[in-house]
User: Fold this.
Amino acid sequence: MSSRSLGHRAPLLWLVIPLIAGLATARIRDFAPPSVLLALAATAAALAFATIRQPRRIFRTALLASMFFAGMASYTLHRPRLADWDELPPRQARVSIEVQRVFPQLEPHRASGLGRIVSAAAPLEELTGQRVYFSLTLRRDTAAPIRTAVLSTTGVIASLPRDPEPNSFDGYLADAGVNFRLSRGRVLAEDRPASAYYRFCARQAERFASILGAGVESKRPELVGVLRAMLLGRSDELSDEQDTLFRRSGTMHVFSISGLHIAVIATGLHALLLLLRLPRLLQFVLGLVALWLYVDITGAAPSAVRAFAMVALVQTSLVLRTPRNPIAALTASALLVILVAPLQVFSASFQLSYGIVAALLLLGLPLSDRLQEKLTLFRDLPPVSWSWMHHLLDATWRATLAALSLGIAASLVSAIAGVMFFELFTPGALIANLWLIPASSAVILTGFLSLLCGLAGFSLGAEIANHAAVLLLWGIENGVRFFASLPGAWVEATFRASWLGPAAFAFLLATMAAGYACRWRGWARGFWPPVAVVALTLLLAVRFP
Assistant:
């Protein structure tokens, strides 16, 4: 098969895969202190450098060993545990916390998030430097904390278990590098206010929320909540019914600021800058600055930061006029994320976002090219003789085949990831996502136009865009409700053993990579191996009620 989506190489996988393997190994148990692991990594790296002109197997083995030990050391350094606390009961503590991330407020006068302990009262000085989850009660005259602020607090502090239950909140915290949680906390004082930049981001977030409600909040507040959840990541504005509906339909991903959102916003910014006819380099700089401001104003969720890194790498390659290689860009962004925040590897959002994008590149695009090659319309009619109707039908048919191919690739990953992370199997998600993703993209683009109009002082334009977005959301919500009501659209499911989910997920991606490497010929002809992996996983490894 001849396809522009095939034949790309990603040499950085020689670094990414052993790094992830080392992180996963260190997560299972402690093998050695970080100093020993770093020494082993340095020794293996020196051996790799010394044998760079030797037979490739020696160099590759040394390189893999170096990155593997580096991954193990990275996990130990990024989650430094105080082993003595595993045997200690929760206790009252007074600590100063630097706020690093604030979660949506589910209750008034309460705030929660992640931070770092910058000081602790005696005799708990050893807590200094540890990452902590905090849950605080706020005074009625106190606003929610802002990133970089340092708060003096008191509350009950407890150590998280080393290996918490998978898919639990403690498991989420552990995967974020958190070792302690402060509950029943109170704010005593603000030792240091947030930086001017993050105060600006907080003000703009409230301004964005106000713009997105202009002209429609009093009429359809429940749909305005969905709009804010989609544009600003404020999933707390979804009602319980809406939250359940989107989870069961396998479409909750549209409310996480991630690849879809960043790509649509980046496209909108690019179109706006093109209209201004600015120089190419200036467009690139202004576009990335504006895109990062959007990411930071909406809370800089890890999924949004990863998507920004991916978009930045792709746009950089376009500016430098290097050959397009989306697989190499995906691998480079994964390596960058692992180096900066290695524990994100264990988060559901990391595995879902990179897993789905990898499936789209390795399986979805080649499958789309194959289907369009085999199922071409008007094959015996020369294109020069086509009427406008022929061209319209051909474009619609190709778009349908592309959407179907990409939907199949994403659904194969979601079938395993949904059971692994959410204990739900949602076969109806394939059909729902075929139309939901284009519709959600339209909502995001319309919300982007509303924000532009609001920031420019054009209130009427913002209201018109909001009405259009709410109309689209009304259709989305009712469409999702219909698909979720179909028999068999979703069912509860769990893996028979906790290790089966990650193993099946990794094996599925490895199968896709192997099929891509052989250009989906020979043993992989027909794109059947990934489908067989998912089918066997659901048949043998998953327990249905």
